Amino acid sequence: MFFFLARRKHKNTPIRFIYYFDSSISGHFLSLTIQRLAKIKIIRLNFKMKDVRDQNDELIRLRICREDIKTFSKFLHLDPFFKKGINDPEYSDRYKSYIFKGIIEGEISIKNSIYRSLYLIQVVSWHMKSRKINQSDFCTEKRPWHNHLEKLSFKQNINLVAYRSIISEFTYFLISHLRLKNFPKLHLILKDLKYRRFSRDFISKDNTLYLEGRANLNFQKNANNSDFFWEIQSNFKRSRIIYRYSSQKEKITLEKNGVGAISGSCSVKDIIKVRKINNLPKQDWVSTESLQLKSLSNEFNNQFNYWKSLFLKHNTKVFFSWYKFNKDHMAISEAIKDTGGISILWQIALNSIQDKLCMTDADILFSYSSHCAAIDKKIGSKFKYNLLSGYPNDYAFNLSNDFSSKLKATLIRNGAKLIVCVLDENSLDDDRWHTGHELQRENYSFMLEEVLRNPSLGVIFKPKQSIDLRRRLGNRISSLIDKAKKTGRCFLFEETIGHNVLATPVIAAKAADLCIHGHLCAGTAAVETALSGVPTILVDRENSSVSILKKLPEGKIIFRKWPEVIQALKYNNFEEFKKINLYGWEEILNELDPFRDGLGALRIGNFIESIFEEFNKGHDRDKAMELAAEKYADIWGEDKVIINN
Questions:
Q1: What single string gives the DSSP state of each residue in 183-236?
Q2: pLDDT, tens only, 4-32
Q3: Would you say the pTM of this structure is higher than 0.90?
Q4: Buried b (16+ CB within 10 A) or exposed e, 557-569
Q5: In CATH, what number does 400-592 get?
């Protein structure tokens, strides 16, 4: 700060206000001293993410992950230093993808992420407009690729000033060079010790599939969440699946149900042979860009070596996952490719906001539809085959009826004539870096208050995450839930499995007459309930501009605020409202699921079975993919297989 003030004084530019985001205790006392001596007002910049919007009233966060990051990415790919770091002909394309995604990785809630930097620039710009300030200086900690952030801030009339003290600079340099990831053998040894268990590890002589799940160890053929939904609904043999357990309880459950439970430890002999797969060209040793590239390169090498060892140990031919939201799957995909295997990712959520953090690089992708595949292409995803599966959880639509019917009967017995299901999203404590708890509280409070007023209304809440739900909602909303439950016309799904609520959205929706999703910008659960035939409406407080769901009629399916929803429930003829709603969804649902036949999981599982059949015939990975894709096209249509040549 002293450097900054001295710099401005040298330029003979007066400073009236200094705004800051966060401060330490010592920084707070320092600011009081500066205010007295320099007669400058130093004020904390208070803001909430839900209020930071662009000229079209769209939440800035949504635009950043679509537009701002796209502009930053263009600058990065043209950067000579970046190109020199990754353009060696010996580097694989997947390695390059890994480095790039490593640079842009991290949500706004992550302190040193590019997204956080882009967001802070927009927050400053938003604040300037609200205060009618024409130009400002934004002093921030020095970080990699500052020059490209500077270009973006300049467009907002913001002078981006980077700083770091000599002590901080030295500390950053020292930590960067002494990180564990810089010592590959030691890193692999410690990682092996982390996962190694004293009990004997599962080893198979047959080809196996490594399943990366969400700890949803449900093996019943029902509508609840399960990592094994695709196997349960298809011809794939469960005995070929391996799954890393995190507790003895999980291990017992997996073994009891015929799944190969593995600890995650690799082979000792591979630790001795560990090597660096990619070595960056020697550039400068001190720039933040060089240190970041070196760090990412080491991370890739370490992950590659670990996963290759694990796949060889367990004779793994397919890596099957849902998690594409960071760079890790790229190193894993390269590792299984090196062993002659195949990486497959399935679509778990609707990326309607076109977030570049969903960019993937794997051999095979499963997408709901050509619309979703086009978004993957748009955000830069790389693949050999993209197979259209339809909505993968549509098998649950008929399986949900028993529990749903009983729940509905209970609410009706207690006086409910109209039952509404409400779907929420997760939230974080700090509402500067997330839309916060306030929007989630609205998702509950309006319906709870209406239930307590109206003895003929019933409500079902299906939270995305229930573990800390009561804490996030606060005492008032929690008390309202308890009061509403006493009426017998309110039900809250709270039972968890792994990190999620056990019940799927469709179980809750099938017990209701109408479903309300509180966030159009997310919308996956709303698509699920609409596909199942339940009238579904969306609340669009974030004003998402590019989502396919935005095509739905406003005032009939889309509502901007909760009070509008409550009014619609009060004054509409429900049977007429239901017809209009279902008709309004029809075109969109056909775009998102070209099948709508309840067989999405079967298609995924049977395709993977085809891959194993081709491996068993002695074909290599490329031929196995080609023949399995041809078979898929013969059964489901040539237009359901997208080949990226």
A1: SHHHHHHHHHHHH--SSPPP--SS-EEEE---S----SSSSS--TTHHHHTSS-
A2: 555 555 455 667 788 889 877 777 777 77
A3: yes
A4: bbbbebeebeebb
A5: 3.40.50.2000
